[in-house]
Amino acid sequence: MIRKIVLAAAAGILLVGVAGGALAEPTPPPDPATIAPPVFDYDTDPAKALVARVRFDSRTQAHVLSTTVSTARARGHSGEPPILRLRLTDVDGAELDRINAWSPLWRLDGGPGGSKGVRPSGTGNFIVPFSPSLATMTVTDVGLNQQVATVDLAAPIRLFCRDNPADPDCRESDLSVTAVEPSAPLFGVLGQPITVTVASTVANGGPDGPSDARVRREVSAGAGLTIADAAPVTTDVPVAVGTPQRLTRTYTVTCTQPGSATLTATTRVAPKLPTVVDAAPGNDVRSATLPVTCAVPATVNIKPGSADNVVNLNPGVLPVGVLTTTAGEYGNPVAIDATTIDWSTLRLGSPSRILAGLGAREKHGRIHAENVEEPDDRTRDGDTDAMLHFDPKSDAFQVGDTSGCVYGRVRVAGAMVAFYGCDRVVVRP
């Protein structure tokens, strides 16, 4: 591995971040007399390298002045014995190399009396080999075992490849998000989680490929929804020219208030390696909004007065009661006045049929306001409930179904909102 450091002037073009801090009482530097003079090497320095110009205010404080890619050979000298250590990491945070480096605080031209000395401050250029996956360099004082600076190397590599597309290390790929498609069940019930699926498609318009794409997916919930697992997820995928990649992720979503709510899904794509240039960033992000219907739970009594709830799939209507309830009654969080149900929105069926948008319709085209038997099929509480009649039963059930549900709309707090309630059934031919 190349282990070089150059301490010379260099032009900088990109300002990057700063790391490191002062210790209360830093340990003294080594005795200059114990440090061997540097050995210069004119033959093996890299033809293309990253040059970081760093200003040291002390052994424990440094800041980056500039970083750039250099294509001119530069002489260097060895960093043995190590005073500083440069740790190079790639875009995934994996270590690529560790390089021993000379410190710009150490005088090379003699101090007072002709001896080597240590400056209180100084500026030096750190030169490290170019790598397409290089992202970060950290500078650590070996004697103190303290990190004093962090250098972003990905940014100058991106800038270099943007300006030098013909360089053999650089590639160009027009990455894009071509679709974001969220989907959810027909409705959710307050307090009961549902699964929302988001499918995202990313593509590579070339000219180079395949290129590794870094895809970030995130969702946000509007008022009335919560998302249990909404933390953004980043996925790396190779995308060949003309071969889009489709990624899916599921989220657990819960309605917290009745009515209509929205969920927004956003997908972003970017080249993973800094040497891949995306010259058309305008298509790198796409969002889609999904409406979610939040239904209030309702208490339903199929065949009021009958404890067995046997449903025969023969001609004839099936009576079903939807009860008027107060908030908290039968565990329902929202009060329901069943007399305000819109009969034209009603459907009866097994849960799977209701969620598929199917089911039997109300036969008589209206609701019957009655004091319907409670779920025990014996008592009546004096409320005015809604008696409904559905036909044909074959649109609602098949043999083997064990649950019958009613879905529709009812007036709650002045607004028409969805409601949903189920009762057990025994379906026979």
Characterize the structure shown.
The protein is mainly β and 429 residues long. Helix content is 3%, strand content 47%. It has three domains: 39-163, Immunoglobulin-like (Sandwich); 172-292, Sandwich (Immunoglobulin-like), CATH 2.60.40.10; 298-427, Immunoglobulin-like (Sandwich). The chain is built from two helices and 29 strands. β27 and β28 (415-424) form a beta hairpin. The radius of gyration is 35 Å and the shape is elongated. The model is unreliable at 1-27 and 74-78 (pLDDT under 50). Residues 1-24 form the signal peptide. Keywords: Signal.
Q: Total number of helical segments?
A: 2
CATH-derived topology of the largest domain: Immunoglobulin-like
| Distance linking N and C termini | 80 Å
Number of strands: 29
Q: Tell me, what is the CATH class of the largest domain?
A: Mainly Beta
Q: In CATH terms, what is the architecture of the largest domain?
A: Sandwich
Biggest pleated sheet:
8 strands, mixed
Strand content: over 45%
In round numbers, the mean pLDDT is 87
Short characterization:
With 429 residues, the protein is mostly beta strands.
Detail the topology: elements first, then pairings.
Elements: E1 40-41, E2 49-56, E3 62-70, E4 76-77, E5 84-90, E6 95-101, E7 122-129, E8 134-141, E9 146-152, H1 154-163, E10 171-183, E11 188-189, E12 194-207, E13 211-221, E14 225-227, E15 233-239, E16 245-255, E17 259-271, E18 276-277, E19 285-297, E20 300-302, E21 310-312, E22 318-322, E23 342-349, H2 351-355, E24 361-362, E25 368-370, E26 385-391, E27 403-412, E28 415-424, E29 426-428
Parallel strand pairs: 10-18, 11-19, 19-28, 21-29
Antiparallel strand pairs: 1-4, 2-3, 2-7, 5-6, 5-8, 8-9, 10-12, 12-16, 13-15, 13-17, 14-16, 17-19, 20-22, 22-26, 23-27, 24-26, 25-26, 27-28
Signal peptide: 1-24
Keywords: Signal
